[in-house]
C-alpha cells in the first residue's frame, strides 16, 4: 500500500482550525414539516373554495371537481418531492441525503398517480358535460386551451421519469441514462406551471391564490438553483480544486489526492461526501458521490475509490492537474452526530473511507474502537493508516477476515469483544446488507437506535 505520496495530508490533526459545517438542527425538520402541512391545508382549501354545490350536483360536475382537486394535490406533491431532492443545506444536515432521497422516492409516485387521476377525471367530466367522446374531448382540451399543449408534453416527460425510476426499469438502465431522463422533470414542471395558473379553477380570477401558488414555485426554483447550481459553482470557483495525483492502494482501489485554494474554509467534516465531477473530456458530464478519506489539511484533501464501474475505474487514469467541480458537502455521518465520547467505527471494504476521515474529526479524548471487515487483509481499505491513528489515540482495533459464511457479527459477539458497547455511538459504513446486519447486532447488544449512525453507498 503506497502512502508516501500522501504525506503532506497525513498530519494527525490540522494545525489551523478548519471551518466545519453547521450542526444539523432537528428544529429545522419540525419547522419545515409544519410548513409543509400548512401548505397542504391551504392547497386543499383552495381546491374546495373553487367549487360550488351546483357544480358538483351532476356526476360530470363531480368528476371535474375531484379531477381539479387531484391536479392541485399533484402539483403540491411535486413541489414537496422536488424540495426533498433540492439539496437544501439545513435540511441535508438535519435529515441526511439518504433519508431525504428515500422520502423523495416514496412521495414521487403519488404526484404521478394524482396527475393521472387529474387527466382522466377532467377529461371524463368535460366529456360528460359536452356529451362528446372521451378522445375527442382530450384532443380538444389539448389543442384549444391555453398552456395545455405544454402541460401535455410535461405530463409525458413526468411519466417517462416515473417509469424510468420504477425499480425494475432502473436496474436495467445505466445510472447516467436514468439521471438524464430525470433531469427533464424540471422542464416538465415548468411547462405544467403555466397551465395551472391559467386554467386552474382555483387560480383564474383569484389573484391572491395565484400569487401564493406562484410564490411556492418561485421559492422552489430559487432553492434548486441556489443549492444545486449557484452554491456548487461558487464553491468550485472559490477553491479551484485540482487532482494532484492518483495513488494505487490495492488492485481495485485508488486514492485521488486533491489540491485547492483555502480548503480550510471549505465547510466539510470527516465522514461527509461530495458529488465529484472530474472535468476531463469523457467524464465532465457526470457527477459521482465519494466520501472524503482525508479531511482538508492545509491545501489538500483526498478521496479513496473502489473500481465498481466504468467511472470509478476511469479515476485511476486521471491526469494530474485535472480540474474538479464539487457539489456538497453532504451527509450526517459526522463526529458531531455522536452523543457521547465513546465510539465504535465499523467498516467493510471501501466503507472504511468515511471512517478514516471521521476518525480525524473525533475529539482527541474520544474512546475509539474500530472494527474492519473484509475477505482478507488486502481488502481492508486504508487499513495501515486507520491502525496508526487508532494506536496514536490509544484505541482498539479488530479485523474480521474471512468468507461471509465463516464470520458472524451478532449482538453476542459484539458484546463479548466490547463489554461497554451499549454505551457507545456506532458508525457503520459498508454494503447495505452488512450495515443492516451490524445495526441489528448492535440493537441486540443494547445500543439504542439513536446511537447507530450509518452511511449508505447506494441511493
Ligand atoms: C453517499 C455515498 C458515498 C460514497 N462514497 C464512496 C467512496 O468513498 N468510495 C467509493 O469507492 N465509492 C463510494 N460510493 C459509491 C460510488 O458513488 C459508486 O460506486 C460510483 O458512483 C459508481 O459509479 P460507476 O460509474 O463507476 O459505476 P456504475 O457501473 O455506473 O454503477 C455502479 C453502482 O453505483 C451506482 N451509482 C453510479 N453512479 C452513481 C451516482 N452518481 N450516485 C449514486 N450512485 C451511483 C449505480 O446505481 C450502481 O449501483 C459512495 C456512494 C454514495 C451514495
Automatic annotation (TrEMBL):
<dbReference type="InterPro" id="IPR017938">
    <property type="entry name" value="Riboflavin_synthase-like_b-brl"/>
</dbReference>
<keyword id="KW-0285">Flavoprotein</keyword>
<dbReference type="InterPro" id="IPR017927">
    <property type="entry name" value="FAD-bd_FR_type"/>
</dbReference>
<keyword id="KW-0812">Transmembrane</keyword>
<keyword id="KW-0408">Iron</keyword>
<feature type="transmembrane region" description="Helical">
    <location>
        <begin position="27"/>
        <end position="49"/>
    </location>
</feature>
<keyword id="KW-0479">Metal-binding</keyword>
<feature type="transmembrane region" description="Helical">
    <location>
        <begin position="69"/>
        <end position="89"/>
    </location>
</feature>
<dbReference type="InterPro" id="IPR013130">
    <property type="entry name" value="Fe3_Rdtase_TM_dom"/>
</dbReference>
<keyword id="KW-0411">Iron-sulfur</keyword>
<feature type="domain" description="FAD-binding FR-type">
    <location>
        <begin position="236"/>
        <end position="336"/>
    </location>
</feature>
<feature type="transmembrane region" description="Helical">
    <location>
        <begin position="209"/>
        <end position="231"/>
    </location>
</feature>
<keyword id="KW-0274">FAD</keyword>
<keyword id="KW-0472">Membrane</keyword>
<dbReference type="Pfam" id="PF01794">
    <property type="entry name" value="Ferric_reduct"/>
</dbReference>
<keyword id="KW-1133">Transmembrane helix</keyword>
<keyword id="KW-0560">Oxidoreductase</keyword>
<feature type="transmembrane region" description="Helical">
    <location>
        <begin position="110"/>
        <end position="130"/>
    </location>
</feature>
<protein>
    <submittedName>
        <fullName>Ferric reductase-like transmembrane domain-containing protein</fullName>
    </submittedName>
</protein>
<feature type="transmembrane region" description="Helical">
    <location>
        <begin position="178"/>
        <end position="197"/>
    </location>
</feature>
<feature type="transmembrane region" description="Helical">
    <location>
        <begin position="142"/>
        <end position="166"/>
    </location>
</feature>
<dbReference type="InterPro" id="IPR013112">
    <property type="entry name" value="FAD-bd_8"/>
</dbReference>
<keyword id="KW-0001">2Fe-2S</keyword>
<dbReference type="Pfam" id="PF08022">
    <property type="entry name" value="FAD_binding_8"/>
</dbReference>
<dbReference type="InterPro" id="IPR050415">
    <property type="entry name" value="MRET"/>
</dbReference>
<dbReference type="InterPro" id="IPR039261">
    <property type="entry name" value="FNR_nucleotide-bd"/>
</dbReference>
